[in-house]
Amino acid sequence: MQGGLERATGEKMVLNFGPQHPATHGTLRIVLELDGESVLKATPHAGYLHTGFEKLGEHLDYNQYIVVTDRMNYLSPLSNNFGYVLAVEQLLGIEVTKRCQYIRILMAELSRLADHLLWLGTAALDLGAFSVFLYSFREREKLYSIFEKTTGARLTTSYTRVGGVLRDLYDGCEADIQQFVSNFPKALKETHTLLTKNRIWMDRTKGVGPIAADAAVSYGLTGPCLRATGIAHDIRKAEPYSSYDEVTFDVPVGTNGDAYDRYLVRMEEMIQSCGIVTQVLDNIPDGPVNLEDNKITMPDKSDAYGHIEGLIHHFKVVMDGHGVQPPKGDHYCATESPNGELGFYIVSDGSGTAYRIRIRPPSFLHFQALPHMLEGGMVSDTVAVLGSLNVIAGELDR
Amino acid sequence: MSEEKEVEEQSKPLVLEKLEANHADALLAQDESRGTVVVVVRKEQAYAVLEYLKTDPELAYTFLVDVTAVDNSQMESELMQFDYARFMVVYQLYSYHGQCRLRVKVPVHENDLSIPSVTPLWRGANWLERETYDMFGINFEGHPDLRRILMPDDFEGHPLRKDYPLRGRGERERFNFEKQNV
Questions:
Q1: What are the residues whose beta carbons fall under 8 Å from the beta carbon of A99, sequence distance 6 or more?
Q2: Which among A133, A335, A338, B25 is most buried, taking Cβ atoms within 10 Å?
Q3: What is the layout of strands, in order, in the sheet containing B27-33?
């Protein structure tokens, strides 16, 4: 049918794709029913990495749960940390300091860059473009050095706290980030020259895995996958949280909703994120990073070790039944994570532990829409489409 | 939730006005919590209300963000409020048209765990409802493929129910260390 190939007649073949296939990037599994090389039916299976994050949330207190959020979308843990504490803070009815909001935007945008870079490298690698992988990992490594210096960890960052962040930016952090963002557009241009007008790349991604705008909305797609269909929706613009209304940026959109448009949207988003980072660095205010509310934020370590009041406050925040206790009620808070809408729905019974935490992961709905994009296409396009969606098993299965 | 101030009544959100006009008998409670309108809807009319919310051109809640449930069995106040319905199925909706969110909650009693599936309205509801079935045992009637999704197919029980322990179930029968060591 497609590509001038004649459809083989009669016999169907069932192909098990994953969960250990190298191009699935994690434990994803798709059962493909093939007729010759065309896909008749695709059935995605989820759950191989199910870890019970939602159940854990009912047994850990609000600050302890931050370490669990690291492990959801493990390509951009800072965005998850951010989304989660924002939900708790909105439930508490508090707003963090201006400097803290700016630091959080800064880290969220840098992690968006890191996420998109890894996506770019692996998506290109799956289609045989090995150099792109090396180029994007070279840039990503610079970001991870910044993360490591800021948070103390490369992957399990656990940077945010309810009411603040772990610690202020280190000395010279602004200079490091400034140096990165001033070099980055040039580095991204190298990738553009490698891929954007590349005959092979265009043949493998243009018109592959398309989804129309109304189908994308019906399937609940969000983030770059939704914007590639032409809907200019970005939660940072529609419901600005945490000072996102004070920075200017464009929301790139595509037209066809295919793998190529998803690629272009993500590429442009990286440039926009760079712009946001520059604006944040220019305007970041001085002042305290943490809220000065001893019932919510932990005191400084020097306080906790040096003064009896600090020690008492430290104990109070940590002890069960004395720390962060949002009022009774429920709240849904959505943030624009690199993959799309990451939502936390928290039900509080007034105690120090959430009564119920529901995570609304973008990948779960993206993976569900996969058959819609695959069926009728070629089996070799499976890898291209899966790569373009950037499904992360950690947040898919939670 | 039932305490409505008179000041707020003047600037009532459009969605509440329209729901009161068209589906007044379906509404059990309404509230505005932290900028989001919350409505609690009778199970029998839940599908009709959700369909109305999606198709009404002025409201156009075309994006089903999330479907989940809450087991209220250890939350006495919530239980009392809705006639001791153990589960609350929660739909999060978003309207691209009005750029606003809406939370629709539907109480479900333990002795009748079925609720109409919204898969005919939103294709994305398929997996979300499967997960809710997997975790809470809510039966979505009319769902095309109601199987477990995150837990294995032969798994017993529904892990996010409050009476399901964090650890221990099924483990001890298989590993009886005490007996072996004696």
A1: A168, A284, A285, A286, A287, A288, A289
A2: A338
A3: B27-33, B36-41, B100-108, B87-95, B63-71
Residue range A40-85, pLDDT digits in tens: 889 999 888 888 899 999 988 898 899 999 888 888 899 999 999 9
Residue B99 token pair: 């750029």
Mean pLDDT for B157-176 is 70
Q: Is the pTM of this model over 0.80?
A: yes
Q: How far apart are the C-alpha atoms of A89 and A42, rounded to whole Å?
A: 41
Nearest to A280 by CA among A169, A117, A142: A169
The tokens for A373 are 């994009």
DSSP conformation class of A28: -
| Contact (Cβ atoms closer than 8 angstroms) between residue A87 and residue A348 | no
Q: Which two tokens stand for residue B141?
A: 């009637």
What is the H or E stretch that residue A218 is in? helix A213-219
Contact status of B2 with chain A (Cβ, < 8 Å): no
Beta bridge partners of A335: A342
In B, minimum Cα distance to A365 occurs at: B124
Interchain proximity A343–B103, CB inside 8 Å? no
CA dist A304 and A382 (Å) reads 55
- The strand ranges marked E within B84-124 are 87-95, 100-108, 114-116
* Chain A contact for B160 (CB, 8 A cutoff): yes
Query: What ipTM score was computed for the predicted complex, to two decimals?
Result: 0.87
- Binding-site residues on chain A for chain B (CB distance < 8 A): 46-47, 50, 52, 54-56, 58-59, 90-91, 93, 215, 217-220, 231, 233, 238-239, 328-332, 334, 341, 343, 345, 347, 349, 355-356, 358, 360, 364-365, 368-369, 372, 397-398
Identify the closest residue of chain B to A340 by CA–CA distance.
Answer: B65
Tokens matching residue A176: 């490091």
Pairing relationship of beta strands B36-41 and B100-108 according to DSSP bridges = parallel
What is the DSSP-derived secondary structure letter of residue A271?
Answer: H
Report the residue from A217, A332, A365 with minimal CB separation from B36. Answer: A332
